[in-house]
Amino acid sequence: MDCQATYFKLYDHLTHSNKYKQSLEDRVSILELKKGDYVYKPSEELYTAYEVVKGTLKIGSYAKDGTECTFEILKPGDIFGNLHYLDGNFQEFAKCLSNVELRLYDLVFYKRIVVEDHDISEWFNQYIVRRWCRSETRFFTIISEDILTRVQRLYREFNKEIFDAKGKSVNIFETFTQKDIADLTGTTRQSIAQVFKKIHKNPDLLYSKMDTVKLP
């Protein structure tokens, strides 16, 4: 299955639509947050769909002992939030890994345009399928490959330069802690520490000669 994104920018589409552009000021806003800030926590009631404009953040939840567990990383163009389709079982947090700029859509408006506008509906369906594909591919990697290979795949997925809300270039992989990497590869922080000891001794296991990414 092809997990690559189809080129479509929701906000640009709305601003060029005579049907929507006059009402965007009341239904769409911008929010900037700092690295380490939470966009929301599980206990909060949300009536907003969020779009990542700049920066990167993680989606996760809490283990029984209260430890944060990361299960998704978002980058510019990604959509997230509680769309109220889970019958009250929405139990995640969103935490900024860099300075982040978000575009906030009124939830009623967002859900309506996904249904009413054919182009948006097609984009939304493709986007959801790509997110499924991304999750399924990561799960398959966890159950079928050794830890080093999982880390290598994660690195290839997130060794990407983006801009944060302050205009600073950020490598997404560099924002990860060893705990984040452990969560995303289905192992433990101790196992990841051992893997990175090997990588420190032999960087070619992970990095190409042109890479300047810092080891976590």
What does this structure look like?
The chain is of the alpha+beta class and 216 residues long. The chain has one domain (10-205): Jelly Rolls (Sandwich), CATH 2.60.120. 37% of the residues lie in helices and 22% in strands. It is built from seven helices and ten strands. The strands form three sheets. Strands 1-8-3-6 form a four-stranded antiparallel beta sheet. Strands 2-7-4-5 form a four-stranded antiparallel beta sheet. It has a two-stranded antiparallel ribbon with strand order 9-10. This is Crp/Fnr family transcriptional regulator. It comes from Marivirga aurantiaca. Pfam families: cNMP_binding.
Q: In sequence order, what are the helices and strands, one letter per element? A: HHEEEEEEEEHHHEEHH
Which CATH top level class fits? Mainly Beta
Query: Spans with pLDDT under 50 lasting ≥5 residues?
Result: none
Quaternary state reads single chain
Number of strands: 10
Major sheet details: 4 strands, antiparallel
CATH topology: Jelly Rolls
Structural class by helix and strand composition? alpha+beta
Provide the descriptors you would attach to this structure in a database record.
216 residues, alpha+beta, Jelly Rolls, 4-stranded antiparallel beta sheet, 7 helices, 10 strands, 37% helix, globular
